[in-house]
Design brief:
Blueprint: E1 2-8, H1 14-20, E2 25-27, H2 28-38, H3 40-49, H4 61-70, H5 73-96, E3 102-106, E4 121-127, H6 129-137, H7 144-153, H8 157-163, E5 166-170, H9 174-190
Parallel strand pairs: 1-3, 1-4, 2-3, 4-5
Helix pairs in contact: 2-5, 3-5
């Protein structure tokens, strides 16, 4: 099994590109959403940490946003609770798909949290900064302060790019992207 770790800026299209590979994808953002909506254990841990804000299950994302905006250190507290749970789900995903030729890990802090191994193939998604910012502003629940706090957790993009085995430029045009993904997928499978 070959494992591709997808790297790139927030909003660069990592999840979109990941789906274009037509193989199993572990999407950490989706897994976090599932934890907020389905995990009573996650709810109890967050409620214990933030009893004034987390009151009902499933966890309301608006309440989490309030917690994050209120105090910068709250992000680290949430991460401390969420990341171990996501790591468990990632390991289950890898075990379940161990017979597949190719799988993708779409995890925003893959490198920062040392979730990748030397044999992983790292794919960097490069996109125009102005285009990214324009698209992010259109997202539901986009919060500039939280965006900046999340950016602070990430390694500089130049370092991520240097780590990458492959780079795809996402111009947000379906035809070009599909073609580039196909080329890289073939190269990876032939390795």
């Amino acid at each position: 099994m070959k494992i591709i770790g997808v790297l790139g800026d927030i909003g660069s299209g990592k999840s979109f590109v990941s789906k274009k590979f037509n193989c199993p994808v572990f999407n950490a953002d989706e897994e976090v959403s599932k934890l907020y909506n389905k995990s009573h254990s996650c709810f109890k841990k967050l409620k214990k940490e933030f009893p004034k804000n987390i009151k009902k299950f499933p966890i309301d994302k608006k309440e989490l946003i309030k917690i994050l905006v209120k105090n910068k250190s709250n992000l680290k507290k949430i991460i401390k609770i969420i990341h171990p749970l996501v790591r468990i789900k990632m390991n289950k995903f890898l075990k379940k798909n161990s017979k597949k030729k190719l799988v993708i890990l779409d995890i925003p802090l893959l490198v920062e949290n040392k979730l990748y191994k030397k044999n992983y193939i790292l794919l960097y998604i490069q996109a125009d900064t102005k285009e990214i910012k324009s698209r992010l502003k259109k997202r539901k629940n986009f919060n500039k302060k939280i965006y900046k706090d999340l950016k602070m957790l990430q390694l500089p993009l130049s370092k991520k790019k240097k780590l990458a085995n492959f780079i795809i430029f996402n111009d947000f045009k379906m035809k070009n992207l599909s073609k580039n993904v196909k080329i890289i997928k073939n190269k990876i499978l032939k390795k």
